[in-house]
Amino acid sequence: MYNVGLAGLTYWSPNVNIFRDPRWGRGQETPGEDPVLTSKYAVNYVQGLQERDDGDKDRLKVAAACKHYTAYDVDNWEGIDRFHFDAKVTKQDMEDTYQPPFKSCVLDGNVASVMCSYNEVNGKPTCGDPDLLKRVVRGEWKLNGYISSDCDSLDTMFNYQHWAETPEQVATDALNAGLDLNCGNWLRDYTMGAVHGGLVEESVVDRAVSNNFATLMRLGFFDGDPSMQMYGKLGPEDVCTPAHQELAREAARQGIVLLKNVLRSLPLSSTGIKSLAVIGPNANATTTMIGNYAGIPCKYTTPLQGLSDSVKTVYHTGCVDTKCTDAQLHEAREVAAGADAVVLVMGTDLSVEAESLDRTSISLPGQQNRLISEIASVSKGPVILVIMSGGGMDIQFAKENPKISSILWVGFPGEAGGAALADVIFGRYNPGGRLPMTWYPQFFAEAVNMTNMNMRPNLATGHPGYTYRFYRGTTVYPFGYGLSYSMFVQWMVRAPKLVKLSLNEEQVCHPPDCDSIQVGDDICKNMGFEVVIGVRNIGDIGGSYSVLFYSYPPRWIPDVPQMELIDFEKVVLAPQEVTMVRFQVDGCKHLSVVDENGKRKVALGEHVLQFGDVRHYLYLET
Question: Which residues are catalytic?
Protein backbone atom coordinates (compact mmCIF):
# COMPACT_ATOMS: atom_id res chain seq x y z
CA MET A 1 0.00 0.00 0.00
CA TYR A 2 2.96 2.32 0.66
CA ASN A 3 4.50 1.43 -2.69
CA VAL A 4 1.40 2.63 -4.54
CA GLY A 5 1.06 5.80 -2.47
CA LEU A 6 -1.87 4.76 -0.29
CA ALA A 7 -0.19 4.39 3.12
CA GLY A 8 2.86 5.27 5.14
CA LEU A 9 5.31 3.01 6.92
CA THR A 10 4.57 4.11 10.48
CA TYR A 11 1.59 2.51 12.22
CA TRP A 12 0.42 3.78 15.61
CA SER A 13 -0.41 0.33 16.84
CA PRO A 14 -0.74 -1.78 19.00
CA ASN A 15 -2.99 -0.57 21.80
CA VAL A 16 -1.50 -2.24 24.88
CA ASN A 17 -3.50 -0.54 27.61
CA ILE A 18 -4.85 -2.91 30.24
CA PHE A 19 -8.57 -3.69 29.80
CA ARG A 20 -9.24 -2.72 33.41
CA ASP A 21 -12.95 -1.93 33.40
CA PRO A 22 -15.48 -3.91 31.32
CA ARG A 23 -17.26 -0.72 30.26
CA TRP A 24 -14.29 0.77 28.41
CA GLY A 25 -15.25 1.37 24.78
CA ARG A 26 -11.73 0.76 23.49
CA GLY A 27 -11.20 -2.51 25.32
CA GLN A 28 -11.96 -4.18 21.99
CA GLU A 29 -8.60 -2.92 20.69
CA THR A 30 -6.58 -4.53 23.45
CA PRO A 31 -5.45 -8.10 24.23
CA GLY A 32 -7.18 -8.11 27.61
CA GLU A 33 -6.87 -7.47 31.32
CA ASP A 34 -3.66 -9.31 32.25
CA PRO A 35 -0.22 -7.61 32.18
CA VAL A 36 1.68 -10.80 31.23
CA LEU A 37 -0.71 -11.65 28.40
CA THR A 38 -0.69 -8.04 27.17
CA SER A 39 3.11 -7.82 27.36
CA LYS A 40 3.61 -11.04 25.40
CA TYR A 41 1.07 -9.94 22.82
CA ALA A 42 2.72 -6.53 22.52
CA VAL A 43 6.18 -7.92 21.86
CA ASN A 44 5.00 -10.35 19.19
CA TYR A 45 2.82 -7.71 17.54
CA VAL A 46 5.68 -5.21 17.38
CA GLN A 47 8.18 -7.75 16.11
CA GLY A 48 5.70 -8.90 13.46
CA LEU A 49 5.37 -5.37 12.12
CA GLN A 50 8.96 -4.27 12.45
CA GLU A 51 11.35 -7.16 11.91
CA ARG A 52 12.75 -7.61 8.43
CA ASP A 53 13.32 -10.85 6.60
CA ASP A 54 17.08 -10.27 6.59
CA GLY A 55 17.19 -10.15 10.41
CA ASP A 56 18.74 -6.65 10.54
CA LYS A 57 17.56 -5.39 13.95
CA ASP A 58 18.62 -1.80 13.23
CA ARG A 59 16.37 -1.55 10.17
CA LEU A 60 12.58 -1.49 10.18
CA LYS A 61 10.06 -3.10 7.87
CA VAL A 62 7.27 -0.96 9.40
CA ALA A 63 7.51 1.25 12.50
CA ALA A 64 5.11 0.26 15.28
CA ALA A 65 4.01 2.39 18.23
CA CYS A 66 2.80 1.16 21.60
CA LYS A 67 -0.05 3.28 22.92
CA HIS A 68 -1.52 4.95 24.96
CA TYR A 69 1.12 5.66 27.61
CA THR A 70 -0.09 5.37 30.34
CA ALA A 71 -3.01 4.40 32.65
CA TYR A 72 -5.41 5.32 29.87
CA ASP A 73 -8.75 3.49 29.95
CA VAL A 74 -11.54 6.04 30.37
CA ASP A 75 -12.93 7.54 27.16
CA ASN A 76 -16.31 9.01 27.95
CA TRP A 77 -18.28 7.72 30.91
CA GLU A 78 -21.07 9.53 32.76
CA GLY A 79 -19.87 12.91 31.45
CA ILE A 80 -16.20 12.33 32.29
CA ASP A 81 -14.04 12.24 29.15
CA ARG A 82 -10.43 11.37 28.41
CA PHE A 83 -9.48 15.00 27.75
CA HIS A 84 -10.32 16.05 31.31
CA PHE A 85 -9.66 12.85 33.24
CA ASP A 86 -6.90 12.75 35.83
CA ALA A 87 -6.04 9.12 36.57
CA LYS A 88 -5.08 8.75 40.22
CA VAL A 89 -2.73 5.76 40.24
CA THR A 90 -0.73 4.28 43.10
CA LYS A 91 2.94 3.40 42.69
CA GLN A 92 2.01 -0.23 43.25
CA ASP A 93 -0.61 -0.32 40.49
CA MET A 94 1.57 1.64 38.11
CA GLU A 95 4.46 -0.77 38.43
CA ASP A 96 2.65 -4.11 38.38
CA THR A 97 -0.33 -3.36 36.11
CA TYR A 98 -0.20 -0.28 33.89
CA GLN A 99 3.49 -0.08 32.96
CA PRO A 100 4.56 -3.69 32.17
CA PRO A 101 3.16 -3.83 28.60
CA PHE A 102 4.96 -0.61 27.63
CA LYS A 103 8.16 -1.76 29.28
CA SER A 104 8.01 -5.01 27.31
CA CYS A 105 7.32 -3.10 24.09
CA VAL A 106 10.53 -1.13 24.50
CA LEU A 107 12.90 -3.60 26.16
CA ASP A 108 11.80 -6.83 24.47
CA GLY A 109 10.04 -5.63 21.33
CA ASN A 110 12.44 -2.76 20.47
CA VAL A 111 9.42 -0.74 19.41
CA ALA A 112 10.06 2.32 17.24
CA SER A 113 7.67 4.60 19.10
CA VAL A 114 5.69 5.12 22.27
CA MET A 115 2.60 7.32 22.15
CA CYS A 116 1.63 9.30 25.24
CA SER A 117 -2.06 9.52 26.10
CA TYR A 118 -4.65 12.28 26.48
CA ASN A 119 -5.28 11.88 30.19
CA GLU A 120 -3.38 13.19 33.15
CA VAL A 121 -1.76 10.81 35.59
CA ASN A 122 -1.60 12.04 39.16
CA GLY A 123 -2.09 15.65 38.13
CA LYS A 124 0.25 15.81 35.12
CA PRO A 125 -0.57 15.39 31.40
CA THR A 126 1.35 12.33 30.24
CA CYS A 127 2.73 14.19 27.20
CA GLY A 128 4.20 16.82 29.48
CA ASP A 129 5.56 14.62 32.26
CA PRO A 130 9.38 14.30 32.18
CA ASP A 131 9.24 11.55 34.78
CA LEU A 132 7.15 9.32 32.51
CA LEU A 133 8.82 10.23 29.22
CA LYS A 134 12.42 11.34 29.77
CA ARG A 135 13.24 9.38 32.92
CA VAL A 136 11.39 6.12 32.25
CA VAL A 137 10.83 5.59 28.52
CA ARG A 138 14.01 7.26 27.30
CA GLY A 139 16.17 6.79 30.39
CA GLU A 140 15.39 3.51 32.15
CA TRP A 141 14.05 1.63 29.13
CA LYS A 142 16.31 3.36 26.55
CA LEU A 143 13.78 3.69 23.75
CA ASN A 144 15.42 3.42 20.33
CA GLY A 145 12.94 5.62 18.51
CA TYR A 146 10.64 8.56 19.01
CA ILE A 147 7.93 9.56 21.48
CA SER A 148 4.72 10.81 19.89
CA SER A 149 1.68 12.51 21.30
CA ASP A 150 -1.81 11.23 20.71
CA CYS A 151 -3.54 13.42 18.16
CA ASP A 152 -4.01 16.98 19.42
CA SER A 153 -2.82 16.04 22.92
CA LEU A 154 -0.98 19.35 23.25
CA ASP A 155 -4.12 21.21 22.26
CA THR A 156 -5.84 19.19 24.99
CA MET A 157 -3.17 20.21 27.50
CA PHE A 158 -3.83 23.87 26.77
CA ASN A 159 -7.56 24.12 26.09
CA TYR A 160 -8.97 21.34 28.27
CA GLN A 161 -6.47 20.74 31.04
CA HIS A 162 -5.27 24.38 31.24
CA TRP A 163 -1.76 23.16 31.91
CA ALA A 164 0.00 26.42 31.00
CA GLU A 165 -0.86 30.04 30.33
CA THR A 166 0.50 30.19 26.77
CA PRO A 167 0.64 27.80 23.81
CA GLU A 168 4.41 28.28 23.68
CA GLN A 169 4.74 27.08 27.27
CA VAL A 170 2.80 23.90 26.46
CA ALA A 171 5.13 23.24 23.52
CA THR A 172 8.10 23.88 25.78
CA ASP A 173 6.91 21.57 28.55
CA ALA A 174 6.19 18.77 26.10
CA LEU A 175 9.56 19.04 24.36
CA ASN A 176 11.45 19.30 27.64
CA ALA A 177 9.54 16.27 28.94
CA GLY A 178 10.88 14.20 26.04
CA LEU A 179 8.20 14.47 23.34
CA ASP A 180 9.64 14.18 19.82
CA LEU A 181 6.60 14.29 17.58
CA ASN A 182 3.21 15.97 17.89
CA CYS A 183 0.23 14.52 16.06
CA GLY A 184 -1.38 17.81 15.11
CA ASN A 185 -0.15 21.36 14.47
CA TRP A 186 0.89 22.48 17.94
CA LEU A 187 4.66 22.09 17.68
CA ARG A 188 4.65 23.40 14.12
CA ASP A 189 2.79 26.51 15.22
CA TYR A 190 4.43 27.29 18.57
CA THR A 191 7.93 25.78 18.77
CA MET A 192 9.61 28.69 17.00
CA GLY A 193 8.00 31.16 19.39
CA ALA A 194 9.14 29.07 22.34
CA VAL A 195 12.72 29.07 21.05
CA HIS A 196 12.74 32.80 20.33
CA GLY A 197 11.21 33.46 23.73
CA GLY A 198 14.01 31.58 25.44
CA LEU A 199 11.63 28.94 26.83
CA VAL A 200 13.24 25.93 25.21
CA GLU A 201 16.80 25.29 24.08
CA GLU A 202 17.40 24.73 20.39
CA SER A 203 19.29 21.55 21.30
CA VAL A 204 16.04 20.09 22.67
CA VAL A 205 14.37 20.68 19.30
CA ASP A 206 17.40 19.13 17.58
CA ARG A 207 16.98 16.02 19.72
CA ALA A 208 13.34 15.64 18.72
CA VAL A 209 14.11 16.12 15.03
CA SER A 210 17.01 13.64 15.25
CA ASN A 211 14.84 10.94 16.83
CA ASN A 212 12.24 11.37 14.09
CA PHE A 213 14.74 11.33 11.24
CA ALA A 214 16.56 8.35 12.71
CA THR A 215 13.29 6.43 12.44
CA LEU A 216 12.91 7.49 8.80
CA MET A 217 16.45 6.27 8.16
CA ARG A 218 15.72 2.91 9.77
CA LEU A 219 12.69 2.63 7.46
CA GLY A 220 14.89 3.21 4.41
CA PHE A 221 13.54 6.58 3.33
CA PHE A 222 17.01 7.75 2.27
CA ASP A 223 18.15 4.56 0.55
CA GLY A 224 17.27 5.47 -3.02
CA ASP A 225 14.67 3.87 -5.25
CA PRO A 226 12.11 2.04 -3.05
CA SER A 227 11.57 -0.53 -5.82
CA MET A 228 15.15 -1.70 -5.34
CA GLN A 229 14.66 -2.36 -1.63
CA MET A 230 13.63 -5.63 0.01
CA TYR A 231 9.90 -4.91 -0.03
CA GLY A 232 9.92 -2.60 -3.03
CA LYS A 233 8.13 -4.91 -5.43
CA LEU A 234 5.10 -5.55 -3.23
CA GLY A 235 1.90 -4.15 -4.74
CA PRO A 236 -1.88 -4.51 -5.02
CA GLU A 237 -1.58 -8.09 -6.24
CA ASP A 238 -0.14 -9.02 -2.83
CA VAL A 239 -3.25 -7.79 -1.01
CA CYS A 240 -6.26 -10.09 -0.54
CA THR A 241 -4.47 -13.20 -1.75
CA PRO A 242 -6.18 -16.52 -0.98
CA ALA A 243 -3.56 -17.18 1.72
CA HIS A 244 -4.28 -13.84 3.40
CA GLN A 245 -8.02 -14.40 3.30
CA GLU A 246 -7.57 -17.85 4.80
CA LEU A 247 -5.42 -16.29 7.53
CA ALA A 248 -8.28 -13.91 8.41
CA ARG A 249 -10.55 -16.94 8.73
CA GLU A 250 -8.04 -18.85 10.84
CA ALA A 251 -7.47 -15.86 13.15
CA ALA A 252 -11.23 -15.60 13.69
CA ARG A 253 -11.52 -19.34 14.37
CA GLN A 254 -8.76 -19.22 16.97
CA GLY A 255 -10.40 -16.28 18.70
CA ILE A 256 -13.82 -17.90 19.21
CA VAL A 257 -14.51 -18.93 22.82
CA LEU A 258 -16.96 -21.72 23.65
CA LEU A 259 -18.62 -20.75 26.94
CA LYS A 260 -21.40 -23.33 27.23
CA ASN A 261 -22.14 -26.63 25.53
CA VAL A 262 -24.78 -28.68 27.33
CA LEU A 263 -24.82 -32.38 26.43
CA ARG A 264 -22.32 -31.67 23.66
CA SER A 265 -25.00 -29.90 21.60
CA LEU A 266 -22.25 -28.55 19.38
CA PRO A 267 -21.05 -29.28 16.84
CA LEU A 268 -24.22 -29.48 14.76
CA SER A 269 -24.54 -32.02 11.98
CA SER A 270 -24.89 -30.38 8.57
CA THR A 271 -26.81 -33.45 7.40
CA GLY A 272 -28.99 -33.84 10.49
CA ILE A 273 -30.13 -30.21 10.51
CA LYS A 274 -32.62 -29.63 7.69
CA SER A 275 -33.41 -26.01 8.58
CA LEU A 276 -31.54 -23.49 10.67
CA ALA A 277 -33.04 -20.25 12.00
CA VAL A 278 -30.49 -17.44 12.13
CA ILE A 279 -31.82 -14.56 14.22
CA GLY A 280 -30.43 -11.38 15.73
CA PRO A 281 -29.23 -7.84 15.00
CA ASN A 282 -25.69 -9.11 14.31
CA ALA A 283 -26.74 -12.15 12.29
CA ASN A 284 -26.00 -10.40 8.99
CA ALA A 285 -23.29 -8.08 10.36
CA THR A 286 -20.55 -6.72 8.10
CA THR A 287 -18.77 -3.61 9.38
CA THR A 288 -19.63 -4.56 12.96
CA MET A 289 -17.29 -7.54 12.65
CA ILE A 290 -14.17 -5.44 12.05
CA GLY A 291 -14.63 -3.14 15.07
CA ASN A 292 -12.63 0.06 14.98
CA TYR A 293 -9.19 0.84 13.53
CA ALA A 294 -9.54 -1.66 10.72
CA GLY A 295 -8.41 -1.56 7.12
CA ILE A 296 -10.63 -2.10 4.08
CA PRO A 297 -11.75 -5.74 4.04
CA CYS A 298 -11.18 -7.95 1.02
CA LYS A 299 -14.78 -9.08 1.40
CA TYR A 300 -17.23 -9.80 4.22
CA THR A 301 -18.62 -13.20 5.14
CA THR A 302 -21.47 -12.51 7.55
CA PRO A 303 -22.68 -15.10 10.07
CA LEU A 304 -25.79 -15.62 7.94
CA GLN A 305 -23.71 -16.18 4.81
CA GLY A 306 -21.32 -18.51 6.58
CA LEU A 307 -24.09 -20.65 8.04
CA SER A 308 -26.09 -20.64 4.80
CA ASP A 309 -23.15 -22.24 3.02
CA SER A 310 -23.63 -25.32 5.21
CA VAL A 311 -27.40 -25.74 5.61
CA LYS A 312 -30.71 -24.23 4.55
CA THR A 313 -31.35 -21.15 6.68
CA VAL A 314 -34.22 -18.82 7.44
CA TYR A 315 -33.30 -15.34 8.72
CA HIS A 316 -34.91 -12.72 10.90
CA THR A 317 -33.19 -9.69 12.39
CA GLY A 318 -35.18 -9.77 15.65
CA CYS A 319 -34.32 -6.11 16.29
CA VAL A 320 -33.72 -3.19 13.97
CA ASP A 321 -30.25 -2.72 15.43
CA THR A 322 -28.13 -3.79 18.40
CA LYS A 323 -29.76 -1.24 20.70
CA CYS A 324 -32.91 -3.34 20.29
CA THR A 325 -35.34 -0.82 21.70
CA ASP A 326 -38.29 -2.68 20.17
CA ALA A 327 -37.78 -6.41 19.62
CA GLN A 328 -39.90 -8.10 16.94
CA LEU A 329 -40.83 -10.93 19.26
CA HIS A 330 -43.81 -12.51 17.46
CA GLU A 331 -42.10 -12.77 14.06
CA ALA A 332 -38.84 -14.04 15.55
CA ARG A 333 -40.67 -16.70 17.59
CA GLU A 334 -42.44 -17.98 14.49
CA VAL A 335 -39.18 -18.30 12.58
CA ALA A 336 -37.48 -20.09 15.47
CA ALA A 337 -40.37 -22.50 16.15
CA GLY A 338 -40.24 -23.92 12.63
CA ALA A 339 -36.51 -24.69 12.55
CA ASP A 340 -34.52 -27.73 13.66
CA ALA A 341 -31.98 -25.48 15.41
CA VAL A 342 -31.51 -21.77 16.14
CA VAL A 343 -28.44 -19.56 16.06
CA LEU A 344 -28.95 -16.23 17.83
CA VAL A 345 -26.28 -13.64 16.93
CA MET A 346 -26.57 -10.86 19.49
CA GLY A 347 -24.24 -8.34 21.17
CA THR A 348 -23.05 -4.83 20.45
CA ASP A 349 -21.45 -2.67 17.78
CA LEU A 350 -19.69 0.70 17.60
CA SER A 351 -22.91 2.51 18.50
CA VAL A 352 -22.70 0.88 21.94
CA GLU A 353 -18.95 0.60 22.69
CA ALA A 354 -16.25 2.49 20.83
CA GLU A 355 -13.56 5.14 21.08
CA SER A 356 -15.10 8.13 22.90
CA LEU A 357 -17.99 5.91 24.01
CA ASP A 358 -17.84 3.83 27.19
CA ARG A 359 -20.75 1.67 28.28
CA THR A 360 -22.80 2.33 31.39
CA SER A 361 -24.29 -1.17 31.38
CA ILE A 362 -22.68 -4.54 30.85
CA SER A 363 -25.93 -6.32 30.06
CA LEU A 364 -27.04 -6.96 26.49
CA PRO A 365 -28.63 -3.78 25.08
CA GLY A 366 -32.34 -3.07 25.04
CA GLN A 367 -34.65 -6.05 24.72
CA GLN A 368 -32.00 -8.53 23.60
CA ASN A 369 -32.36 -10.58 26.81
CA ARG A 370 -36.10 -10.85 26.32
CA LEU A 371 -35.72 -11.76 22.64
CA ILE A 372 -33.25 -14.54 23.51
CA SER A 373 -35.47 -16.00 26.24
CA GLU A 374 -38.64 -15.86 24.13
CA ILE A 375 -36.98 -17.60 21.18
CA ALA A 376 -35.43 -20.25 23.43
CA SER A 377 -38.83 -21.03 24.94
CA VAL A 378 -40.39 -22.01 21.58
CA SER A 379 -37.42 -23.69 19.92
CA LYS A 380 -37.65 -27.45 19.42
CA GLY A 381 -33.95 -28.10 18.92
CA PRO A 382 -30.55 -26.74 19.98
CA VAL A 383 -30.30 -22.99 20.64
CA ILE A 384 -26.86 -21.53 20.10
CA LEU A 385 -26.31 -18.02 21.46
CA VAL A 386 -23.49 -16.08 19.79
CA ILE A 387 -22.23 -12.89 21.45
CA MET A 388 -20.46 -10.44 19.15
CA SER A 389 -18.92 -7.73 21.31
CA GLY A 390 -15.69 -6.05 22.32
CA GLY A 391 -16.19 -6.46 26.06
CA GLY A 392 -17.78 -8.96 28.41
CA MET A 393 -21.51 -9.24 29.06
CA ASP A 394 -23.70 -10.31 31.94
CA ILE A 395 -25.44 -13.25 30.28
CA GLN A 396 -26.04 -15.18 33.50
CA PHE A 397 -29.69 -15.65 32.46
CA ALA A 398 -28.58 -17.50 29.32
CA LYS A 399 -25.93 -19.47 31.16
CA GLU A 400 -28.63 -20.77 33.51
CA ASN A 401 -31.35 -21.29 30.88
CA PRO A 402 -31.50 -25.05 30.05
CA LYS A 403 -33.13 -24.31 26.71
CA ILE A 404 -30.00 -22.43 25.57
CA SER A 405 -27.71 -25.33 24.78
CA SER A 406 -24.53 -23.48 23.72
CA ILE A 407 -22.94 -20.05 24.02
CA LEU A 408 -20.09 -18.70 21.88
CA TRP A 409 -18.22 -15.40 22.19
CA VAL A 410 -16.70 -14.28 18.91
CA GLY A 411 -15.48 -10.78 19.84
CA PHE A 412 -15.42 -8.60 16.74
CA PRO A 413 -14.10 -11.41 14.53
CA GLY A 414 -13.04 -9.61 11.35
CA GLU A 415 -14.01 -9.92 7.72
CA ALA A 416 -14.20 -13.74 7.74
CA GLY A 417 -16.03 -13.94 11.07
CA GLY A 418 -19.15 -15.55 9.63
CA ALA A 419 -17.19 -18.29 7.89
CA ALA A 420 -15.19 -18.96 11.07
CA LEU A 421 -18.38 -19.14 13.14
CA ALA A 422 -19.84 -21.71 10.75
CA ASP A 423 -16.62 -23.73 10.90
CA VAL A 424 -16.99 -23.95 14.69
CA ILE A 425 -20.74 -24.59 14.79
CA PHE A 426 -20.56 -27.41 12.22
CA GLY A 427 -17.44 -29.00 13.67
CA ARG A 428 -14.95 -28.19 10.96
CA TYR A 429 -12.91 -26.46 13.66
CA ASN A 430 -12.59 -27.33 17.33
CA PRO A 431 -12.74 -24.11 19.41
CA GLY A 432 -9.85 -23.50 21.80
CA GLY A 433 -10.11 -19.80 22.64
CA ARG A 434 -9.99 -18.49 26.21
CA LEU A 435 -11.50 -15.31 27.64
CA PRO A 436 -8.88 -12.55 27.91
CA MET A 437 -11.00 -10.66 30.42
CA THR A 438 -13.31 -11.29 33.38
CA TRP A 439 -17.05 -11.24 32.61
CA TYR A 440 -18.65 -9.46 35.57
CA PRO A 441 -22.30 -9.40 36.66
CA GLN A 442 -24.35 -6.28 35.97
CA PHE A 443 -24.24 -5.12 39.60
CA PHE A 444 -20.50 -4.52 39.13
CA ALA A 445 -21.29 -1.72 36.68
CA GLU A 446 -23.89 -0.32 39.05
CA ALA A 447 -21.62 -0.35 42.09
CA VAL A 448 -18.16 0.57 40.76
CA ASN A 449 -17.11 4.05 39.70
CA MET A 450 -15.27 3.63 36.40
CA THR A 451 -12.84 6.43 37.26
CA ASN A 452 -11.51 4.50 40.25
CA MET A 453 -8.10 3.40 38.92
CA ASN A 454 -7.24 1.26 41.95
CA MET A 455 -6.73 -2.32 40.88
CA ARG A 456 -6.83 -3.55 44.46
CA PRO A 457 -10.00 -3.89 46.55
CA ASN A 458 -10.70 -1.54 49.41
CA LEU A 459 -12.90 -2.81 52.22
CA ALA A 460 -13.36 0.69 53.63
CA THR A 461 -14.89 2.07 50.42
CA GLY A 462 -16.46 -1.13 49.17
CA HIS A 463 -14.36 -1.12 46.00
CA PRO A 464 -14.21 -4.80 44.89
CA GLY A 465 -11.01 -4.53 42.84
CA TYR A 466 -10.44 -5.22 39.16
CA THR A 467 -9.51 -8.26 37.07
CA TYR A 468 -8.99 -11.84 38.16
CA ARG A 469 -5.81 -10.79 40.00
CA PHE A 470 -7.65 -8.69 42.58
CA TYR A 471 -11.44 -8.97 42.17
CA ARG A 472 -12.94 -11.33 44.73
CA GLY A 473 -16.61 -11.15 43.78
CA THR A 474 -18.77 -13.44 41.68
CA THR A 475 -18.26 -13.65 37.93
CA VAL A 476 -20.38 -14.71 34.99
CA TYR A 477 -17.27 -16.24 33.40
CA PRO A 478 -13.71 -15.93 34.72
CA PHE A 479 -10.57 -14.82 32.92
CA GLY A 480 -9.05 -17.71 30.99
CA TYR A 481 -12.31 -19.65 30.66
CA GLY A 482 -13.03 -21.58 27.48
CA LEU A 483 -14.33 -25.02 26.51
CA SER A 484 -13.46 -27.43 23.71
CA TYR A 485 -15.20 -30.22 21.80
CA SER A 486 -12.49 -32.49 23.18
CA MET A 487 -11.12 -33.21 26.67
CA PHE A 488 -7.59 -32.44 27.82
CA VAL A 489 -5.79 -33.45 30.98
CA GLN A 490 -2.53 -32.06 32.33
CA TRP A 491 -0.17 -33.15 35.06
CA MET A 492 3.05 -32.06 36.69
CA VAL A 493 6.07 -33.88 35.27
CA ARG A 494 8.90 -31.98 36.87
CA ALA A 495 9.30 -28.92 39.11
CA PRO A 496 11.54 -28.18 42.09
CA LYS A 497 10.15 -28.12 45.60
CA LEU A 498 12.90 -25.89 46.97
CA VAL A 499 14.69 -22.98 45.31
CA LYS A 500 17.49 -21.06 46.99
CA LEU A 501 18.10 -17.39 46.27
CA SER A 502 21.65 -16.30 45.62
CA LEU A 503 22.34 -12.98 47.37
CA ASN A 504 25.30 -10.68 47.02
CA GLU A 505 27.90 -10.48 49.75
CA GLU A 506 26.52 -7.31 51.32
CA GLN A 507 23.00 -8.60 51.74
CA VAL A 508 21.98 -10.71 54.71
CA CYS A 509 18.53 -12.22 55.04
CA HIS A 510 17.43 -14.49 57.87
CA PRO A 511 13.73 -15.33 58.24
CA PRO A 512 11.53 -14.41 60.00
CA ASP A 513 13.20 -11.00 60.28
CA CYS A 514 13.61 -10.95 56.51
CA ASP A 515 10.57 -12.19 54.60
CA SER A 516 11.34 -10.84 51.11
CA ILE A 517 14.22 -9.90 48.81
CA GLN A 518 14.20 -6.79 46.65
CA VAL A 519 14.72 -7.40 42.95
CA GLY A 520 17.58 -5.39 41.49
CA ASP A 521 21.09 -5.54 40.09
CA ASP A 522 23.03 -8.41 41.70
CA ILE A 523 20.50 -8.67 44.52
CA CYS A 524 18.15 -11.35 43.24
CA LYS A 525 19.78 -13.76 40.80
CA ASN A 526 20.41 -17.40 39.88
CA MET A 527 16.79 -18.36 40.47
CA GLY A 528 16.14 -19.99 37.12
CA PHE A 529 14.44 -23.37 36.97
CA GLU A 530 12.34 -25.47 34.60
CA VAL A 531 8.77 -26.62 35.03
CA VAL A 532 7.54 -29.42 32.77
CA ILE A 533 3.82 -30.10 32.27
CA GLY A 534 2.34 -33.12 30.52
CA VAL A 535 -0.78 -32.62 28.40
CA ARG A 536 -2.95 -35.32 26.78
CA ASN A 537 -5.96 -35.02 24.52
CA ILE A 538 -8.21 -37.76 25.92
CA GLY A 539 -11.06 -36.95 23.55
CA ASP A 540 -11.83 -38.20 20.05
CA ILE A 541 -11.37 -34.84 18.29
CA GLY A 542 -8.09 -33.05 17.63
CA GLY A 543 -7.77 -29.50 18.89
CA SER A 544 -5.76 -26.84 20.63
CA TYR A 545 -5.31 -26.38 24.35
CA SER A 546 -3.80 -23.43 26.19
CA VAL A 547 -1.73 -24.30 29.24
CA LEU A 548 -2.13 -21.38 31.66
CA PHE A 549 0.65 -21.22 34.27
CA TYR A 550 -0.40 -19.33 37.43
CA SER A 551 1.27 -18.59 40.75
CA TYR A 552 -0.16 -17.79 44.18
CA PRO A 553 2.40 -15.66 46.03
CA PRO A 554 2.80 -15.59 49.83
CA ARG A 555 0.85 -12.87 51.58
CA TRP A 556 3.77 -11.24 53.46
CA ILE A 557 3.82 -8.22 51.16
CA PRO A 558 0.68 -6.05 51.44
CA ASP A 559 -1.91 -6.16 48.67
CA VAL A 560 -0.25 -8.76 46.47
CA PRO A 561 -2.42 -10.34 43.73
CA GLN A 562 -4.47 -13.32 44.82
CA MET A 563 -3.10 -15.12 41.75
CA GLU A 564 -1.05 -14.18 38.69
CA LEU A 565 -0.48 -15.57 35.23
CA ILE A 566 3.22 -16.37 34.86
CA ASP A 567 3.20 -17.70 31.31
CA PHE A 568 1.08 -19.63 28.83
CA GLU A 569 1.58 -21.94 25.88
CA LYS A 570 -0.85 -23.27 23.28
CA VAL A 571 -0.45 -26.84 22.02
CA VAL A 572 -2.31 -28.63 19.22
CA LEU A 573 -2.96 -32.33 19.85
CA ALA A 574 -4.55 -35.14 17.89
CA PRO A 575 -6.85 -37.55 19.76
CA GLN A 576 -4.92 -39.37 22.51
CA GLU A 577 -1.74 -37.47 21.66
CA VAL A 578 0.59 -36.47 24.52
CA THR A 579 3.07 -33.61 24.66
CA MET A 580 5.38 -31.99 27.21
CA VAL A 581 5.23 -28.23 27.75
CA ARG A 582 8.34 -26.66 29.23
CA PHE A 583 8.33 -23.33 31.04
CA GLN A 584 11.59 -21.61 31.91
CA VAL A 585 10.98 -19.74 35.14
CA ASP A 586 13.07 -16.83 36.34
CA GLY A 587 12.17 -16.65 40.00
CA CYS A 588 13.23 -13.02 40.36
CA LYS A 589 11.04 -12.03 37.41
CA HIS A 590 8.13 -14.45 37.48
CA LEU A 591 7.66 -14.95 41.21
CA SER A 592 8.19 -11.36 42.30
CA VAL A 593 5.46 -8.96 43.36
CA VAL A 594 5.32 -5.19 43.82
CA ASP A 595 5.10 -3.53 47.22
CA GLU A 596 3.19 -0.36 48.11
CA ASN A 597 6.22 1.76 47.18
CA GLY A 598 6.39 0.38 43.67
CA LYS A 599 9.43 -1.81 44.41
CA ARG A 600 9.55 -5.35 43.08
CA LYS A 601 10.31 -8.04 45.65
CA VAL A 602 10.43 -11.82 45.92
CA ALA A 603 8.61 -13.11 48.97
CA LEU A 604 10.29 -15.95 50.81
CA GLY A 605 8.32 -18.97 51.88
CA GLU A 606 5.73 -21.10 50.17
CA HIS A 607 4.59 -20.28 46.64
CA VAL A 608 1.91 -22.24 44.82
CA LEU A 609 2.17 -23.00 41.10
CA GLN A 610 -1.05 -23.99 39.35
CA PHE A 611 -2.04 -25.45 35.97
CA GLY A 612 -5.77 -26.09 35.73
CA ASP A 613 -6.59 -28.28 38.74
CA VAL A 614 -2.95 -29.23 39.35
CA ARG A 615 -1.16 -27.47 42.21
CA HIS A 616 2.53 -27.64 43.06
CA TYR A 617 4.07 -26.20 46.23
CA LEU A 618 7.42 -24.47 45.92
CA TYR A 619 9.49 -23.09 48.80
CA LEU A 620 11.88 -20.16 48.33
CA GLU A 621 14.66 -19.55 50.83
CA THR A 622 18.04 -17.87 51.04
Answer: 150
